[in-house]
Amino acid sequence: MSKLIFLDLDGTIIDHGSNSIPSSTVKAIDEARENGHIISLATGRPPYLIEEVLDNLHFDAIITANGRYVVYKDKVLRKEVIDAKTVKHFIDEMALYSADVGLLSIDDYHMVTRTNDTWKKFSDYFHLKEPNLKPKKTDFKNVLQMILFLEDHSKLDLFRSHYPHLEFNISCPYGVDINTLGGMKEMGAETIRRHLNFPIADTVAIGDGYNDISMIEHVGTGVAMGNACEPLKEAASFVTASVDDEGIYKAFKKIGLI
């Protein structure tokens, strides 16, 4: 029986130690698809920042921006943007704390201020292209996600209280993903599952980060990479090897996908 599989990108598919995709991961994905399984990418990145990945891997579905933009075989199943006024207000308030904000849409990634180099540390951490600087940008429509470039996370609870209609999720020591309220990647996974009418029991998810926990808990079989954060390992059905030790390939073998 075919399975519906959701794969995180950074730290799961991409080994940031070598900034590459292990050949065993490519092989596992290709073999699983040949065996009739459906593979979906599930990433916190927006479409604009996964173009190079799509040149090297084949997916049946794409979940981006932590579940806010979902595509299955070129059909958009979900698109959820942050209110433009909220974006403007958030940027202005964060400026009071000398914190810059990255704005991500389907085809753009930019910021309107650069007050420090935290954005650079964030980009280097994930090996991302740098956001464009557009200081005169005033149109904040179609923002799927914001990134708060922040190293001191002590004020996050304060920010959450100011924006109770937004979701805050720490993605790394230098950045916080900001999305509309309502969940994380599991929203995108559920959108695809319902579209295909797949039983929950036949769904699988593999990840390593905090923004993968709700997705791991939502599916029938949740797998944590060996390099995953401890809360994710605790929530998972089992822990596979690390990304640099054929983690996905070994997980696919254990589950019987290949």
Going across the biggest sheet, name each strand in turn: 5-4-3-2-1-12-13-14
Assign the CATH topology of the largest domain.
Rossmann fold
User: What CATH first level of the largest domain would be assigned?
Assistant: Alpha Beta
Give the total of beta strands.
14
Which structural class should the secondary elements be placed in?
alpha/beta
User: In what range is the share of β-strand residues?
Assistant: 15-25%
How does the major sheet shape up?
Answer: 8 strands, mixed
CATH architecture grouping of the largest domain = 3-Layer(aba) Sandwich
Average pLDDT figure: 94
The N- to C-terminal Cα distance equals: 12 Å
Shape: globular
Element-by-element helix/strand order:
EHEHEEEHEEHEEHEEHEHEHEH
Low-confidence stretches: none
Number of helices: 9
Task: Write out the CATH superfamily name of the largest domain.
Answer: HAD superfamily/HAD-like
Rg calc: 18 Å
Task: Tally the structural domains.
Answer: 2
How much helicity do the residues have? Answer: 25-40%
